[in-house]
Amino acid sequence: MRTRNQPKLARDVAVVGAGMSRFGMFRDKDSKDLFADAYRDTLASVDKGVDPTEIDALYFGNFTNDFFVHQSHWGPILSDLIGLVPKPVIRTEGACASSALAFREGVLAIASGLCDRVLVGGLEEMSKLPTEKVTEGLSLAGLPYESDVGFTFPGVFGAIATAYFDRYGATREHLMNVTIKSHENARLNPNAQYHVSIRDMMNAKIEKAGKQGRPLPTWSDEKEFLRDPAANPMVAWPMHLFDCSPISDGASCMLLVAEEIAREFTDTPIHVAGIGQGSGRGLHACDDLTSFEATRYAAKVAYEMAGIEPDDVQFAEVHDCFSIAELLHIEDLGFFGPGEGFKAVEEGLTRLDGSKPINTSGGLKCKGHPVGATGIAQLFEIWTQLRGLAGERQIPNGNVRVGLAHNLGGTGGTCSVTILERV
Amino acid sequence: MEERPFSDLSYQQFLDEEKLMGSRCRKCGALSAPPRPICIHCHKSDMEWVPMSGFGKLAAYTCIAIGPPSMIAEGYDRKNPYCVGVVELDEGVRVDARIEGVNARQPETIQTGLPLQVVFLHRGEGEKARTCLAFEPLPT
What we know:
The structure holds two protein chains of two kinds.
Chain A: E1 13-20, H1 31-45, E2 57-61, H2 65-68, H3 74-81, E3 89-92, H4 98-111, E4 117-125, H5 131-139, H6 144-148, H7 153-168, H8 172-186, H9 198-211, H10 222-227, E5 234-236, E6 239-240, E7 249-258, E8 270-279, H11 293-306, E9 315-317, H12 323-332, H13 341-346, H14 363-367, H15 371-386, E10 402-409, E11 414-422
Parallel strand pairs in A: 2-3, 2-4, 9-10
Antiparallel strand pairs in A: 1-7, 1-8, 4-7, 5-6, 8-11, 10-11
Chain B: H1 8-16, E1 21-25, E2 31-32, E3 47-51, E4 55-64, H2 69-73, E5 82-89, E6 94-99, E7 115-123, E8 130-137
Parallel strand pairs in B: 6-8
Antiparallel strand pairs in B: 1-2, 1-3, 4-5, 4-7, 5-6, 7-8
């Protein structure tokens, strides 16, 4: 029974196609090339095909290609690229959550009745600048109080980690469990920027040392490798290189349609069951240093719209920009209690074969994090798993029907939670 | 006591004068540092300036090896990291600040809960002169 305050769309929406470019650092590809790849991949994924001239609008997320490649006003560039002119194109900006906002706006455009077929997407081209400049660009999504004293993004999440450690007794070793798990999943994802396990990387480094006649490293296991500052240097304590998502270029895309016409496109449309969006304050002003209010709010709205509880979500992609972030999110989303996330990861509950698989794609850490493309790339993974198309990384735990994507921007300033369901 | 607007610019001007100032809502008493022009608790805009004591404790921290260009210009890098943190003031509000007087090369030796006092770091000269909020451990 719908209560008066239950959020509800005026018209149901389905995802009937999804695609993404390769994620990585590309010297020979720019934003247009990457978006064209994601767009073509999306159209090719529509089982019964789509007439591009019937697409009503494009909503796309981009954080700051203005800074990264010194070009603004990407809307008409993209609409011209894909032959959409003179249809409307709208950019959304929510830092690393930019394309989840585009997804939401696309859903609302259809729910409003104005549009029937909407493309949503995202893009970011980060690798053309040196690391220090990329760090500066990402810091634009923080608050002036943070950047004024020298906080960086890894720094803010590092500080959150010290507060989490202090409060719950977790350690760096627990963060390593997150990283090792993400890489195990990425090893099964050919689209991942780091399509390797930690063990694979260790073996490659040992082999390289042997070929160069250097002493062979003697790491006994993955954690000893991750404790080695030569292999895993500090970025912002306690965040080390392997706690951080990489610098990436990439694009993502999806085709949304009104549910009533979805079967014109596919026999297995994926239903948009719930969308929630929230905002939050900077770290200094938040109510709790080990939780994001924006996530809690967005999740509450999405669960209410979908009419489900956290336990009903079978798997999720969460915004693991840093290893510590994954722990906060799986707690804020209600999958595990406060301070229980690191134990759940240690027990293997979030592995591909666990009771609540998290980041089956390898997450931002391994799949890559072209920030404006990430939100829809997360939804691409949910869509792929729900349609049973995830290949080697397909969740083995029965027949998945309900998946959730959680996309976070800034230092918790923007959050979007989306629940997709196979009906 | 002060007529300045409750803005980020005023907050920075006070820092340049070696004062850490917050705003307090005259209607509901909610305290905020940095200041706010609008109370987020009662939504009124009737504020007054309040000086902060400058004492607090370390709530969260990090030691940064890869900083932005502005910190690299100050001489910080992978071999010479710097510490920043969130400081919970005795008044109950939290601020972002540089943390001085700790060993950022050995971050595991730094403990949350560390008692701190405010210091003001003056950087740059002339037009570019700017004061950075910092804290250091209380002398034991």
